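Quiz preparation item.
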């Protein structure tokens, strides 16, 4: 089998992504990309009085995630989290 035969577009992950994002994410644990601290999403610092919502690390206050919604769409920037563990 050729490598090009193994490549699929993002729609191939639709079912998996739908499964992941139906879970209660406040109990998910994540690791801060900046300091390595591990915390549940429900324990992070949240700033919600802006055009979007910003989640910050409870240890070093680095930005973990930004979420903006508008016009029936959401934008999610999670580059401050090196991994996220979601319990089923």
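Solution:
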């Amino acid at each position: 089998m050729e490598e090009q035969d193994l490549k699929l577009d993002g729609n191939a992950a639709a079912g998996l992504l739908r499964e992941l994002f139906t879970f209660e994410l406040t109990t998910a644990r994540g690791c801060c990309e900046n300091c390595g601290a591990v915390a549940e999403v429900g324990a992070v610092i949240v700033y919600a009085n802006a055009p979007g919502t910003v989640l910050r690390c409870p240890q070093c206050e680095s930005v973990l995630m930004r979420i903006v919604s508008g016009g029936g769409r959401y934008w999610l920037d999670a580059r401050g989290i090196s991994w996220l563990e979601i319990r089923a």
